Amino acid sequence: MKVIFIHNNFPGQFINLVKKLSCLNHEIVFISHYKRQDIIIKNIRHLFAPPLPVTHTTYKTYSQKTSHEMFLTGESFASVMIRLKKEKFIPDVVISHPGWGGSLYVKDIFPLAIHVGSADTKKYRDQSHAHIRIKNMGTATTA
User: What residue ranges do the domains of the chain occupy?
Assistant: First the structure.
């Protein structure tokens, strides 16, 4: 089975699943902005999505800021997925954390892949329910 993992930080909450699948000889690609150097998982291909550009844009609301950053992150990760598609890597499954927007365009690029989004549900003390909904927006748009 071919699997793509999408998370802002490698390996994120997927560490145990990635390790298990890699031991079972599945073909795994992990796409992220950042990689923890202290974690090494054999038999996977790690690709970096270009980080977001530094911007000094002023937003009126948190939702505007988050939405804009999600679209930019989605474009960054999409560029890596398009490269994989050109290399003829077509995943059976894409597993992602949609909270940063990295999986926003999964279904556009890999329409036949099963997409599993692991969304945040924990509400931190300074976050509203709207904040959590915006953060998980990528789940609804790629299901």
Answer: 2-142
Q: Is the dihedral of CA 133, 138, 142, 143 positive or negative?
A: negative
Q: What CATH number does the domain located at 2-142 have?
A: 3.40.50.2000
pLDDT means per 10 residues, the chain with 143 residues, are 94 91 94 88 93 77 79 94 98 91 94 87 56 54 40
Torsion sign over Cα 119, 123, 129, 131:
negative
Are the C-beta atoms of residues 120 and 84 closer than 8 Å to each other?
Answer: no
Q: What is the secondary structure of 17-79 as a DSSP string?
A: HHHHHHHTT-EEEEEESEE-TT---TTEEEEEPPPPPP-----SSHHHHHHHHHHHHHHHHHH
Distant-in-sequence contacts of 47-56, Cβ < 8 A, 24+ apart: 47/80, 47/83, 47/84, 48/80, 49/73, 49/76, 49/77, 49/79, 49/80, 49/102, 50/76, 50/79, 51/76, 52/76
